[in-house]
Structures are given as structure tokens and as C-alpha cells.
Design goal:
Blueprint: E1 7-8, H1 18-23, H2 34-51, E2 56-61, H3 64-73, E3 81-86, H4 89-100, E4 104-109, H5 118-127, E5 133-137, E6 139-140, E7 145-146, H6 149-157, E8 162-166, H7 178-181, E9 185-189, E10 200-205, H8 207-215, H9 225-233, H10 243-259, H11 261-281, E11 296-300, H12 307-318, E12 320-321, E13 323-324, E14 333-337, H13 344-360, H14 369-382
Length: about 400
């Protein structure tokens, strides 16, 4: 009751991997030395490995939005026709970036909680065969929904357009076969499944996308993909890098390689499935029930209850931080994350706390109902059968 450990249960920033945090203490290193170049090269190589791509991977000292900005300013020209998929707050960000750079954007908008279908993308491409690019979120974190990236990519690959995927919360929570599916630009961020603080953005760039860079005329300076590739090939960043975060990322990537990217994704998927099961047992409604993702689960607050109450109660009672709804969904949903350095013990505690909060605010539930649902998922999906000696 008196000691409250802060627990981040948000879809970014996420809990920090302790060895990565310790690695940051060695950041009194000059970034134009061979010692740092070794760490930088290692990060870029390991990013390629865990992302599963032979494409170039570049890194910037910025939030993930910086890489989103770079993918527009480096690969397109003013007036280019593009298709923007908007299914939530971060899809709206794609539309805002396209507008800021003067692109001719056809925006495919669906209500929050739903997803843009591959058929909608294919139909839009058929109506505008001169489309230069398609933008989407793999995982729309504001609603808990996941797009069918593979099917969308199949539609885009038949055209001359490039497919630009914000996978900032998709990497490490869902399968993304960058090369096999033809994902031309895939964007990630440090504070999500990679378990370190905010401040690093990275993106993979396909040969098809690099050809677009040859003819693009939009202005850019700091976010210069060609310059960053040249610097990266030499083991450096173009500008002063975030040395502490790069050292942290190097450590986190070693951990991801140790457990395997597929297992990191499976971990998120199991936690998401268990959260959905718990919500159902507690009589709560999922917000994106039709296309739920594994980075975060969005749950509707009980009728008559503001989701902000649940968010506040987690903080005051347990020192835990969960996410409210964003935009028009603020006060209607709360969001629980599963990406990165989360395990089942975190989920047991979160669901137990949720049961207490619901009871305390006039929504009666039987204690242990949701927790039992999580335990069952753990028992059947996470515990390996033990060998019995004869």
C-alpha cells in the first residue's frame, strides 16, 4: 500500500530492458571514433537481421514521426498522387504529413476501431493508376487494430507505387515479411518493442523506393536518406547521434536476437490474446474486435464510466500507467500494451488491479475472473510440457 512501483503499461514508451539501461551509462564516448563506429555498424546490421530484410536500414535521432516525415520528403514530389489509409490517430498523421508536403492525397477513411481493407486499397489504385505511394499503419495503436499489410502489399506490388508502412508498433508484435511481401519502406521506433527510451527512429528502404529518391523534388535537409545511407555505410550518422540510445539499442537487439524475433512477436500475441480473454470474462467490450492487433488492446469502459477514471485509478492505486483513448475516443476506451519487455506476471497484476478498480467504481465483478482467464492462456500456450521420468 505504501510502496508503489511505477509500471508502464502503455504502447510507448514501454518498460526498459535493464541491460540496455545500464549500457547507456557508457555514453561518454565520442561519436567520431572507431569504438562508436563499431557500435553503430552493429546496430544497423542487427536491425536488418531482426527486421528480416536485405534492404538498407537507416537510423535518425528522432521520434518515429521523423522517419515518417523522411519517407515523404525524400521519395515524393509536390502534387504526386498518393493513397493514405486512415483508421485512427496515426493514420491521420500520415494524411497531415502528405498535406504539409503538397501531395495529392486520396484518403481512405474508416471509423475508429475498424481497418481499411485491402479491397479498398486495390479499388483506389485501379481508379488512379498513376498513384505513386500508399501509406498505412501496420498497427493502429490509437484503436488497437491491425491492418492486413500482406494483402495490401500484394495489391500495391502490381502497380508502380511504393508501399510505405508505419510499423512503429507493428515491429515485434506481428509478422512483417519485408522482402517477401514487398514492403518498400518500413518504419520503426526505439520506445516500442525494442525496449529502450524514445529518441531513435529507423526505416528500411527497398531498391524500388531508392529509385523514387532519384526523381523526388521535395525539400529536405536533416532527414536526408541518401546522406544517411552514405554515412551509415561508413559506420557513422550524418549528424550528432544519440550515443546513449544507440548503445542501449545495441544491447536490446542482442536480447531480441537471443530470444528470436518470432518469439518476441509470439510473446506479444499471447499477452494480447490473454487480455482479450480477460476482458470478455469481465463483461467488457473490445474496441477493435474485428481486427485486433497484438501491440495494444483497446477496451471500452463500462457504460456510464469515463475511461479516464480507470486510467487515473491505475496511477493512484497501483502506480501503473495505462493509456486513455486518443482523439474522439478519449474517455471512451482504455488501452493496455503488450509490446517489448512485458511478461505474464505483468498481465496477472494488471488484470487483478483492473478487477479492483471496476468494483470500486460501481461495476461489480467477481475477483479472480479475469485473472483466471489469463492463467488459462498461460497454462495452455506458454508452459511447455514437462518430461516425466519413468
Amino acid at each position: 500500500m505504501y510502496i508503489k512501483k511505477q509500471r508502464l503499461l502503455t504502447p510507448g514508451p514501454t518498460p526498459l530492458y535493464p541491460p540496455a539501461l545500464h549500457a547507456m551509462m557508457a555514453s561518454d564516448i565520442h561519436h567520431r571514433t572507431e569504438d562508436f563506429r563499431k557500435a553503430y555498424r552493429s546496430c544497423l546490421a542487427d536491425l536488418k537481421e531482426v527486421m528480416g530484410t536485405a534492404n538498407d536500414v537507416l537510423m535518425f535521432a528522432s521520434s518515429g514521426t521523423g522517419a515518417m516525415d523522411a519517407s515523404v520528403s525524400n521519395l515524393f514530389s509536390k502534387g504526386d498522387k498518393v493513397i493514405v489509409c486512415v483508421a485512427g490517430k496515426f493514420g491521420e498523421r500520415w494524411a497531415e504529413i502528405a498535406k504539409a508536403y503538397g501531395l495529392d492525397a486520396h484518403v481512405l477513411t474508416v471509423p475508429y476501431g475498424q481497418v481499411v481493407s485491402p479491397a479498398q486499397v486495390e479499388a483506389a489504385l485501379a481508379l488512379a493508376p498513376d498513384t505513386k505511394g500508399v501509406f498505412v499503419q501496420a498497427s493502429e495503436t490509437s484503436t488497437g487494430a491491425a491492418h492486413d499489410v500482406r494483402a495490401m502489399a500484394a495489391a500495391v506490388s502490381k502497380t508502380g507505387a511504393i508501399f510505405v508502412v508505419d510499423a512503429i508498433t507493428g515491429l515485434g508484435t506481428m509478422p512483417l515479411d519485408i522482402d517477401g511481401w514487398g514492403l518498400d519502406v518500413v518504419i520503426g521506433g526505439s520506445q516500442k518493442a525494442f525496449m529502450i527510451p524514445p529518441g531513435l527512429a529507423f526505416l528500411s528502404v527497398s531498391p524500388k523506393a531508392w529509385k523514387f529518391a532519384e526523381t523526388a523534388t521535395l525539400p529536405h535537409f536533416y532527414f536526408n536518406l541518401k546522406k544517411e545511407k552514405k554515412s551509415g555505410d561508413a559506420g557513422e550518422s550524418s549528424w550528432t547521434p544519440s550515443t546513449a540510445l544507440i548503445l542501449a539499442l545495441a544491447e536490446a537487439l542482442r536480447y531480441v536476437k537471443q530470444i528470436g524475433m518470432a518469439h518476441l512477436i509470439e510473446n506479444a500475441q499471447m499477452l494480447a490474446a490473454a487480455t482479450r480473454a480477460a476482458a470478455g470474462k469481465l463483461g467488457l467490450e473490445l474496441f477493435s474486435a474485428g481486427s485486433p492487433g497484438s501491440s495494444v488492446t483497446a477496451v471500452r469502459a463500462p457504460a456510464g464510466m469515463d475511461s479516464g477514471v480507470i486510467v487515473k485509478e491505475f496511477k493512484t492505486r497501483f502506480g501503473s500507467v495505462i493509456a486513455n483513448g486518443q482523439g474522439s475516443m478519449k474517455g471512451q476506451i482504455f488501452r493496455i500494451a503488450h509490446l517489448g519487455y512485458f511478461d505474464f506476471a505483468d498481465l496477472f497484476a494488471m488484470v487483478a488491479g483492473l478487477e479492483i478498480i471496476l468494483n470500486a467504481n460501481g461495476y461489480p465483478v467477481k475477483y479472480g475472473t479475469g485473472v483466471a482467464a489469463v492463467q488459462e492462456i498461460y497454462e495452455h500456450a506458454a508452459v511447455k510440457p514437462q518430461t516425466v521420468n519413468a
